[in-house]
Design a protein that fits this description.
The structure holds two protein chains of two kinds. Chain A is 36% helix and 24% strand. By secondary structure, chain A is of the alpha/beta class. In chain A, helix 6 (174-191) links the parallel strand 7 and strand 8 (194-198). By secondary structure, chain B is α/β, with parallel strands linked by helices. Chain B is elongated. The chains are: A alpha/beta, B alpha/beta. Chain A binds chain B through residues 18, 49, 52-54, 78-79, 81-82, 84, 86, 88-90, 92-96, 105-106, 108-110, 151, and chain B through 109, 156, 158, 237, 240-241, 244-246, 248-256. Chain A: GO terms for molecular function: ATP binding.
Chain lengths: 258, 379
């Protein structure tokens, strides 16, 4: 039986008076590759910001290993956050530091390692994403896809328990996107991390996702949660069928045989 | 096909219930659009119609100008309850009409924003000022905590950053501070000389320059230069980090934005601004000395002696103390605007401008308050 890692209870997200999504309830288990999916503008990235404690829930709560990020003191909160690894949409590498320094930053700040040890680790993490030769490049000197991979190297610097990806394959060519998917699977299996991905790339969703939540921009709430392959096979909601089949199944056909 | 200018021809049936609108010629966007007003004039008798058939058989080339007219026409017909028949138009036109109508209209808050009354606007302004004040106090609290942690050696930042900011704020600003301060000293001496010469009291130019530079102008001019030079840079740096999600990345790495981004800048400024102020005072005095010796025939030694006899040391101390306050004001204005920056390129520009403007206003206000307080205290 898998153990729950992140629990979302009755979460309502809002920017001021504008509600983005309401009444979200789902559980992310340890070792899941959890996909947050939904059409553009439905609040996927906002949900991720709630999961990682950047935005405060308007109502309800997000529990990480049973604790809410908003009901603990600053020190404990930072310790919790340290167990997250996050790659942002555009990488969000510190533009004033080289790739190596970016990856080294969390290691310098949170471990007692010596500079030479940190350097070894940095080269190892960069090697994992195939960027070891670029250690001394600035983020502005490499391509967008490389920046994403470098951000991933930084995210796994402290061997996190949960890895978050905001649209990892957006703007990548199909082969790089596939390689990134493989890398994510590999990291889950080898690190034993829980992985949360915001994406609407169907290929990735079916290739690696084993749990998901579907957000709907019209009703402003979640329509379903579960394994995306199961959803495709057995969920009868028209919005979900349309989304998961690229709009090919317009009307629900009562019973769908796969 | 020859170019033909566009034309609308309206013909009606005998009983006036049905009309035919023929579209002739080329509809090109280069000829401008037919606006709603013109269309209404053409269709003035429309109210009596029940049906309007658009005939496109003699239509030449067409582009968006035709589409825009047709959408206008459709709205007009809906308004007047006239049935509109478009079937004889080219396929492309019909498909484009359909495409533009196929998206559900969503009521976004932006398009239906109600106009606010004067009181509502005042209320909203007050609310937002209170929120800003709240934010500033919050920021001050965080900064104080960060400084405490810095003293305890627990703060997390890159010492490399402090070095870079020290380099930039100090030696990097040397030349401009030197030039401006020298000139301010020259100006003070000139202005003083013109007045004092009438009483044969030119010697007091030395006192004037010493007091003016030491107590007021040295600290203030340096602060204003640094607000424009370094405060603006801080807002732009942190603002573009905000746009790039770098600040989010830091926070979720478990690093505090105030400690990691603000603390090195505060430290650099608190060290460098007083040093620059001392340098500025010296340059101003040098400027005064140049004027005195070249124009007023007061020798350098006499100038210095007169200055040290009449301007007590505590005046310079007041100038220095003020520079510490100014340093805080500049860093806070730069960093607060940077951290509060919106997520676009225009927002970074706005943050930078506001950082400089607010810093300069605050410098002058702080200076006046300090001057009034010191006068009351008799210093």
């Amino acid at each position: 039986m898998s153990q729950s890692h992140i629990e979302v209870n009755n979460l309502t997200m809002a920017y001021g008076p504008m509600v983005v999504q309401r009444d979200l309830n789902f559980t992310i288990n340890r070792g899941d590759i959890f996909v947050i999916m939904g059409g553009s503008g439905c609040g996927k990235s906002t949900l991720m910001k709630h999961l990682i404690g950047l935005n405060r829930p308007a109502q309800g709560e997000v529990l990480f290993a049973g604790k809410s990020l908003w009901h603990i003191d600053e020190q404990e909160r930072r310790n919790l956050l340290r167990r997250f690894g996050i790659t942002y949409q555009a990488g969000a590498l510190l533009s004033s530091l080289t790739l190596g320094e970016n990856v080294a930053l969390p290691l310098q700040q949170f471990t007692p390692l010596k500079p030479s040890e940190i350097d070894d680790l940095v080269r190892y993490k960069l090697a994992l994403v195939g960027l070891e030769p670029y250690q001394h490049f600035m983020p502005s000197e490499i391509s967008g896809g490389m920046r994403k991979r470098a951000a991933l190297a930084r995210a796994i610097a402290l061997d996190p328990e949960v890895l978050f990806f905001d649209e990892p394959s957006a703007g990548l060519d199909p082969i790089s996107a596939r390689l990134l998917d493989d890398l994510i699977l590999e990291l889950r299996d080898s690190l034993g991390a829980t992985i949360v991905i915001v994406t609407h790339e169907l290929a990735s969703i079916f290739a690696i996702g084993d749990n998901s939540v579907f957000l709907d921009p019209e009703t402003k709430t979640q329509l379903a949660t579960g394994d995306p392959k199961q959803l495709l096979a057995s969920c009868e909601l028209p919005q979900i069928q349309r989304f998961l089949t690229r709009g090919e199944r317009q009307a629900p056909t009562g019973s769908i045989t796969s | 096909m020859s170019e033909q200018s566009r034309k609308l021809v309206v013909s009606t049936t005998a009983d006036q219930t049905e009309a035919r609108l023929s579209l002739l010629g080329d509809w090109r966007i280069d000829d401008g659009l037919l606006n709603g007003e013109q269309l209404r004039q053409q269709l003035a008798p429309a109210p009596s119609w029940q049906r309007l058939v658009v005939d496109g058989d003699q239509l030449g080339r067409w582009d968006s100008s035709l589409m825009s007219m047709l959408r206008e026409l459709r709205n007009l017909c809906q308004e007047l309850n006239v049935e509109l028949e478009l079937a004889s138009l080219p396929q492309g036109v019909l498909r484009l009409m359909q495409l533009a109508d196929s998206y559900p209209t969503r009521n976004t808050d932006k398009s239906t924003k109600p106009k606010l009354s004067l009181f509502e606007r005042i209320g909203k302004n007050v609310q937002s000022s209170l929120r800003n004040l709240d934010y500033i106090l919050d920021f001050l609290g965080h900064l104080t905590m960060a400084l405490v942690r810095l003293v305890k050696g627990q703060a997390r930042y890159r010492s490399e950053d402090v070095r870079l900011f020290l380099q930039d704020a100090g030696p990097g600003s040397f030349k401009i501070v030197a030039l401006i301060s020298l000139l301010v000293g020259v100006i003070l001496a000139f202005v003083g000389a013109v007045q004092l010469r009438q009483f044969g009291a030119e010697i007091y130019v030395a006192s004037l320059v010493g007091l003016g530079m030491g107590r007021e102008m040295g600290a203030m001019m340096t602060a204003i230069i640094m607000a424009g030079r370094t405060g603006a840079a801080y807002a732009a740096q942190i603002g573009s980090m905000q746009v790039n999600e770098e600040v989010d990345a830091l926070k979720t790495m478990g690093l505090s934005d105030v400690e990691f981004l603000v603390l090195p800048r505060v430290t650099a400024m608190l060290i460098m601004l007083p040093l620059l102020t001392i340098f500025s005072i010296a340059m101003g005095i040098l400027g005064g000395a140049l004027v005195s010796s070249l124009m007023l025939d007061i020798g350098w030694l006499l100038y210095i002696k007169q200055m040290s006899d009449t301007v007590a040391l505590y005046h310079y101390a007041i100038g220095l103390a003020k520079s510490i306050l100014f340093a805080l004001v500049i860093v806070m204005s730069g960093c607060i605007h940077g951290l509060n920056c919106g997520r676009s390129a225009t927002a970074v520009g706005k943050a930078t401008t506001l950082a400089v403007v607010h810093a300069i206003v605050a410098i002058i206000v702080v200076d006046s308050v300090v001057t009034i307080l010191l006068t009351v205290l008799g210093l």
